[in-house]
Amino acid sequence: MSDKIGLKEAISIGIGGMVGGGIFAVLGLAVSLSKGGTPFSFLIAGILALLTSYSYAKLSLVYPDRGGTVKFINQGFGRTIFSGGINNLLWVSYIIMLALYASAFGSYAPNLFKITSTTAIDFHIDASAVIILATLINYYSVKVVSKIESFAVVIKLIILLGFVGIGVYGLWGNPNVSQLAISQWETPLQLLTGGMVIFVAYEGFELIANAAPDIENPEKNVAKAYYYAVIFVILLYIVIALVTVGSLPFKQIADAEDYVLAEAAKPMIGQLGFTIITIAALISTFSAINASLYGGTRVSYEIAEDDELPHHLTSTLWNQPIGLLITAIITLVLTNMLNLESISTAGSVGFLAIFAIVNAVAYRKATDINANKYIALTGCILCAVATVVLLVQQFTSNKLGVLVALGLIAICFIAEYIYKKQEKQN
Can you give the pTM of this predicted structure? Predict the structure, then answer.
């Protein structure tokens, strides 16, 4: 029993997975897309996450496995080209999230220390350095990764809750509060698009699935862990969005889009607030990169072990799966090639598509897992519709992000098709 995970620890895994680098990376992007309706966009994305967490909770109880999402998809569709392609997409989505976190780190770091006289060059140096450092730590010790994440979860939550407390108090009398009026909201379709672009800020709840086999009293605690974690994060994000939009004029938010949370702390406690939030962002994004490198490596290992990718990916290099080095290299390339909005769009498309499939598995297995098939079906349809809306809406303003997302999905399925065909011939 000493190795078992209690309810508080399980909730912490979910909260830590969601409140990683996501909120620091996408908050400015959310405001640029939704304006005064940003809190509502976070609510829309949160409702989708909550619906999907229902399917995850039911599947985790009946099919507890450290493979988490990979195992659920294989359970629903067998070891086919389709399931293999979706599982490959999960690995790729982890890599995209890593690029998002590294981009956030690269955007915040120059505000604290400058390496060169050019911010753009500093961005690439900082973002690349943090990926390399996290990779070396993962090679050195998985225990160190775990300790860093445990420490970071506490630090970032204390700082964010402090930001919320001071920020709500600071809204009284602030003229920018008028920006939250419905007249300042974007169109309903744009609010939906904004919510879907920032959906990556919620995807981390799925990490609870990997811990499900170790959660004590699972019949009571698994579902609670999912729901409590997601609901807490929805409320946290909404209040953070309210404070940000109500504290700064839209132009100032746009100018500081990549590090807006730090900028939003200035009206309350000046440069000290800016520095504290910047430090919190660096700690959060660094810990998120550490944890996601480990998670992404484990996903690639699980997929190869299930014979959906070449078994070479189960081999080790310097005592770690070869997938760690591959994940790190691809992350470096994406971080230095794509802008923040393109990375966020690609990540959200990937996870929305994966969550649509997981909801579909819960619908198909509703009787076996004692689930309400209509809730699972609603989650599946809404995730699928959200994916299409995001692709269509972003195609005009962010064509590169959409093409990257579609290209990566195509590569995942083509690679699986070629691999399965070769396996059949052999």
Answer: 0.86
